[in-house]
Specification:
This protein is an all-alpha fold. The protein has two domains: 1-96, Rna Polymerase Sigma Factor, Chain: A; 115-205, Winged helix-like DNA-binding domain superfamily/Winged helix DNA-binding domain (Arc Repressor Mutant, subunit A, Orthogonal Bundle). The chain has helices at residues 8-16, 20-42, 45-62, 73-92, 107-113, 120-125, 128-137, 140-151, 156-163, 167-204. Helix 2 packs antiparallel against helix 3 and helix 3 crosses helix 4 (73-92).
Length: 205
Amino acid sequence: MKPDNSSDSELLQAMRAGDEEALAALYRRRQPGICRFALQMCGSQELAEDITQEVFMVLMREAHTFDPARGSLSAFLMGIARHHVLRSLQRERFYVSMNEAPDNGSSTSQALMTTIGPLDEMSRTESIESVRRAVLALPERYREVVVLCDLQEMSYGETAEILGCAIGTVRSRLHRARALLIEKLRPAREEDAAAATVKSTRCFA
């Protein structure tokens, strides 16, 4: 079996049989998405990496709890990641200021914006920094649907599976989350417009 050409289920089965190469292949395949999700939820690269490692530790311990009849392995792993993200936020009340988050080339910026999906139009008119701040400032239940649906580009069905709720709930939360994002971005937009006006006035003074 060539690990990189195998399905998630085949790799999981091989991993449970003690195949370390299968585990490594699963890690290579699923680690980037899990780490992006954690990063977009908490704003901390360090915490995101810790959570990602914990997800795979849980998988090694509890692979037997995965039921393919209930959904994909990807959704299963994302559900574990969500649990650890929320637990970390509650335990540490960890709402990192974006001034504290790494941004020099911007692994954080890239992770947030490279899969922006339906938020693409918004990203054209707003700075990456403003969008990142706005997403991180959303209440958790709205932040997670934006991250999963708009940033991770998951379907409503997959998102509902990860969150353990109805598809209708995902739709309504996403609608509300996007409205909140627009509200949060409005002050930044107005501030930028005011700054541009002042600059223009000075040029002609």
